[in-house]
Amino acid sequence: MAITVVGSVAFDSIETPAGRRERCLGGAATYFSLAASFFTDVRVIAVVGEDFGAQEEAVFDARKIDTRGIERAAGKSFFWEGSYLDNLNEAKTHATDLNVFAAFEPKIPGLYRDSKFLFLANIDPVLQRRVRDEMPDVKLVAGDTMNYWIKDHRAALLEVLKGLDILLINDTEVRMLAGDDNLVKAAQAVLALGPKALVVKHGEYGATLFHGADPKDHGTKCFRAPALPMEEVVDPTGAGDSFAGGFFGYLASQPEQTPAAFRRAMFYGGVMGSFACERFGTERLQKLTRKEIDERFILFRELTHLD
Amino acid sequence: MAITVVGSVAFDSIETPAGRRERCLGGAATYFSLAASFFTDVRVIAVVGEDFGAQEEAVFDARKIDTRGIERAAGKSFFWEGSYLDNLNEAKTHATDLNVFAAFEPKIPGLYRDSKFLFLANIDPVLQRRVRDEMPDVKLVAGDTMNYWIKDHRAALLEVLKGLDILLINDTEVRMLAGDDNLVKAAQAVLALGPKALVVKHGEYGATLFHGADPKDHGTKCFRAPALPMEEVVDPTGAGDSFAGGFFGYLASQPEQTPAAFRRAMFYGGVMGSFACERFGTERLQKLTRKEIDERFILFRELTHLD
Fold first, then answer.
1. Å from A226 to nearest chain B CA?
2. Which terminus of chain B has a lower count of CB atoms within 10 Å, N or C?
């Protein structure tokens, strides 16, 4: 079933030990929708500037992603410049030019309103909440956030968490949000804020799914998915959003979101995150095939399963 | 089949956020042999001082560990004092008194010489090599080391690696040993130094087994075992040695060391490491039952398996 995603569509200039790219297509909603598009229909809500042209549009079209919710505004698109020269796990930001994104007011096309799945990518929690409220009939809502909103926009973020089924954040973020260094206790605290499930991304160590865990269960309400040990991470930009796209895209493709479907979704998340890192920007996701995805899913199984 | 282990038997004073213990029984060979003793017969080679008494001896006896290779020397036993107040993943060392360990000359009892499995715990690589050379008929040799030997005793350590079947070290150590920050490349480089298999321990994120991996295989020659998400880590001291004990103890208990046995051994390693952290020092390992181990093994499977 169709997913509507709201988030950024941007241009990124990226430098990693593998090289440098200027103004490649990026943004959380871009990575998310490309990754999710291998599993289900995806509809994007975003804003771009006049620099977003036919070439960028074609990237979405090639994956049959619905871009009617991408508003064209006067000015330039969101631009981010960052490098990973010292640490592939953490970007050093050199520039963040919000441009048209500064005045972003998400508008939900009428045609999107029958979407049963909603993904709130990392944007201002006030906007996340507004979109969520305007789509009361969705079946499952997942979302992302980041340290900036956790630290300085906590009240608004807490309102978003109340309306989320699934929150996907990284280790540092869950500890910051909960104010607890212990991952399990932090996860319990975050689940108490509203989300029914929490996916904590550990970068090269994979990800953990927590859902309504009772401390006495000693982990039975957890599930750990691996990341692929990679000989070369060309560009980690968008890996988390690609994880989210694979995870939520797979869930949305299933008739029921059973615990078993959640576990497989964690694997598909890892699979899509691993592909995203293999080339700069969205290059790898653009060229990907469903066959490659399925083969890598099998690899993830071999990497973790006893028999 | 029986394992002979050479390493430290010590007293540790430990402070963690959960409290403080003075002079509890510790040392790599102690944790290793307690953990391995649940799977197979274990024989220890070590040296202790006059402070090692009936109470400590009883801990080994209760697990039917052969201590005839533990030499009693005049003086005090190896003593370590450390804390984990800021970071449960890394001990801050306050004191290391080698005492009788400074002049340790491992002597292999004749009765140990039919051991088919040998574990070289973290000691001077010159001594590791000597013990390994004196037991030419063992079937499988595994070993551990640490940053100190990697940095300042590299030549001696490289000699040890040539004679190892399995090296078990942590993330930081494999990167330091290989001089490469990428885990997969670092693992390849270490495997080229001699070991047929490498187990890299990632602390709370589990561990990865690399064996003769071809870069083109994209991880098919890897296996990732989880660690148990724990609500409270009482004391991480000895978790790595307990992992090694569970891993190698299980391998030694099997008629053949097949790839499937290696994968299960990775799980048993994680299981024993998780128990070790639940109480101070060796308290948890002393009270453990095989039933608890098997139950936790099932939990590890549920934590990672799709079906």
1. 7
2. C
